[in-house]
Write a structure and sequence with these properties.
Elements (H helix, E strand, L loop, with lengths): L1 E5 L4 H12 L3 E8 L17 H14 L3 E5 L1 H17 L6 H20 L4 E3 L5 E5 L2 E5 L9 H4 L4 H5 L1 E2 L7 H10 L21 H9 L4 E5 L5 E5 L26 E6 L4 E5 L6 E11 L7 E6 L6 E9 L2 E10 L7 E6 L7 E11 L1
EC number: 2.8.1.13
Family: Belongs to the MnmA/TRMU family.
GO cellular component, one term: cytoplasm
């Protein structure tokens, strides 16, 4: 097959490309330029869109002996990922930009262009597994539970998965680093990128304030309605947040307060006790399903990229994914994604559906 390998400049995508070559595919490497003004150097282990990363990707392609290109997706990335991220926070929701990047950039914009150019598949360094049952491609958890990325890929459609390759799905991170060193790839010991790539300094609050400006509001005790403090914008907070609330006085019972809800129109941030964060019902919009939901389905729900799992029952009603948690989860916020899985110890848990959370109870 003709395979386009998305090469970020990190060890995972380099080894994924190497494995595609070793499997006998005709591989071409491509680095996505996602920033209009890429930094010269990475800030520690943050980010993956710098000039240095592009050079690392090119060096890896040279070692593998494959053609290499840089494609400018900065404008599309800004519109589809960065601008949406800002708008979601302004609306009091908590988005996942990595999930949106996979959906809109790597497996929509990139895949569409790859197919138009005659490629059969796009290979990435994601830790997830694919299997085919009755001609339908299914998405499963990776062998490395600690690195599993099926959650941020769960919004991909059957058609997109049919043109995807995840060569690292059966490996652990440690194995990938050893293989990179054995193949002579200089990125073998390169630190992983983390957090949000377009906020390389990690200051999400500062980034949003620069984009949205100050929109003053108040912090209110959910029990008494008392005003406990003031803030410059609901975008500074997320549901479940404990630190940095700017509240001087402790709660009457001495226990910490957490953000319970955000009301962007009034500028109100409601805070209260930890037990009020517990959620047992999730309503999610725009579901992408991999099975036919003829009724309630036993599953495991996941609400964060790493962690946030609970046994559940899911069903699709009137175009929405309803998830009834058998065990409560905390810090579940509108804007996050919920993915539901069928447990399968032998083949890897199967992704049944994914949707964007719109309400909780």
């Amino acid at each position: 097959m003709r395979v386009l390998a998305a090469m970020s400049g990190g060890v995972d995508s380099a080894v994924a490309a190497a494995r595609a070559v070793a499997a006998g595919h005709e591989v071409t490497g491509v680095h996505l330029a996602l920033s209009a003004k890429p930094g010269t150097l990475r800030t520690g282990a943050r980010g993956c869109c710098t000039i240095e990363d592009a050079r690392d990707a090119r060096r890896a392609a040279d070692v593998l002996g494959i053609p290499f290109y840089v494609w400018d997706f900065a404008e599309r990335f800004t519109e589809e990922v960065v601008d949406e991220f800002v708008a979601e926070y302004a609306a009091g929701r908590t988005p996942n930009p990595c999930l949106r990047c996979n959906e809109k950039i790597k497996f929509e914009a990139l895949l569409d262009k790859a197919i138009a150019l005659g490629f059969d598949a796009v290979a990435t360094g994601h830790y997830a597994r694919l299997s085919t049952v009755d001609g339908v491609v299914e998405l499963r958890r990776s062998a490395d539970d600690g690195k599993d990325q099926s959650y941020v890929l769960a919004s991909l459609t059957h058609e997109q998965l049919a043109h995807a390759m995840f060569p690292l799905g059966d490996s652990t991170k440690a194995e990938v680093r050893v293989e990179a060193a054995e193949r002579g790839l200089q990125v073998a010991d390169k630190p992983d990128s983390h957090d949000i790539c377009f906020i390389p300094d990690g200051d999400t609050r500062g980034f949003l304030t620069r984009r949205l400006g100050e929109q003053p509001g108040v912090l209110v005790d959910d029990e008494t309605g008392a005003v406990l403090g003031r803030h410059v914008g609901v975008h500074e907070f997320t549901v479940g947040q404990r630190k940095g609330l700017g509240i001087d006085a402790p709660a009457p019972d001495g226990r910490p307060r957490y953000v319970l809800s955000l009301e962007p129109v009034s500028g109100t941030v409601r805070v209260g006790a930890a037990e009020k964060l517990q959620v047992t019902e999730i309503v999610a919009q725009r579901p992408v399903t991999r099975i036919t939901f003829d009724g309630p389905v036993e599953c495991v729900a996941q609400v964060r990229a790493h962690g946030g799992l609970a046994p559940a029952v899911a069903e699709v009603v009137d175009g929405e994914l309803l998830v009834h948690l058998r065990e409560p989860l905390s810090g579940v916020a509108p804007g996050q994604a919920v993915a539901v899985y069928r447990e399968d110890a032998e083949a890897g848990d199967l992704v049944l559906a994914s949707a964007t959370i719109s309400a909780t109870q």
